[in-house]
UniProtKB/TrEMBL annotation:
SUPFAM superfamilies: POZ domain, TRAF domain-like. InterPro entries: BTB/POZ_dom, SKP1/BTB/POZ_sf. Residues 186-253 form the BTB domain. It comes from the Eukaryota. The lineage of its organism: Eukaryota, Metazoa, Ecdysozoa, Arthropoda, Hexapoda. It comes from Nasonia vitripennis (Parasitic wasp). This is BTB domain-containing protein. It holds the Pfam family BTB.
Amino acid sequence: MENNTGNPSKRIKLGKTSLNIPEVTYRWTIENFVNSKPFLKDNKDILSPIFDAYNNNERVELQLKLRVSNKAWHFRCTNVGRYGGHAKVWVKYSVVNSSNEEIYVAGMGGSLISENVYLSYCLADLDELYNENVLVNGNLVTVCKIYFDNGQDYTQSEPDLMTPFIGEKSLMQDDLENLLKLKKFSNVNIIVGNKKFRAHKNILSVRSPVFSAMFEANMRESIENVVEVNDSSPEIMNELLRFIYTDRVNLEAVPIMDLLTAADKYQVEGLRVKCLESIMAKLSTENLAEVLDIVDRYEIPELYRYAVNFLITKRQEIVTKNDWDDTIASLSPRMLKELTAMLIKKF
């Protein structure tokens, strides 16, 4: 479609793309999965019922397989029928946990061109699927979503016209999060309390100057491939590593001041900024004393300036609520001296 405005140099070309992409979603519940571990053997499959998918009115018979191999679970989608076409597909696997959230999300593309051709993806370590937070009443619930690509051209000039097919493809962030969860090719252990995190030196090094220095120097962390952390919790380390791998973080899942402290210690600047922005947005007279204590101990200048200005601005409200004595008592001599100087200068 072309819209002529009268001036050839100002012609506006409008385009639109509409795609019809066959898809099928199959939800597979493996009952009594919680008791299956003693009976598992390497390279033995747990099979789903055979189910149908249709591509250009042709029936494709598919079956899902869950297999244990090398102490990990592998999810497979197999063409078990006599489909003779050549179909490119994108398959997305996931597990639905007891909170009805999709976890261990993974996807890959390939072809289903003949009998017994399958797509396979390493889903999780052997023990992980037996976690009570993963299983639903002792059952393992999985979802497989399949898209058929019949040769359409997905190239388009409009950046906001993302097709459903492309939108379902696994992001690099998803892949890296799965790499962290699956611990595949890990080469360093991070010990926090009684929890061991298996990670990858190269990823930690490029994201944290502190980790980089550990692994480059002739230190225990480099020689023994072990990092012991005594000033944090497993929950904080989990969110720190998740951000290092994916740039994703759940700021509501852990005490944010503790997460900020960890981000500051390991110099993970992106996470540090996210924590600071959230703390500044939620700063109140109720948590002011805690924030001032943290910034005083760990010397976080941006938050220090913001918190002190907040204290000065809200001083009447703090005094009215009888919080002033507690707030002042929480300050170190250095901060109290600086605050007094700022008050004198301002008033």
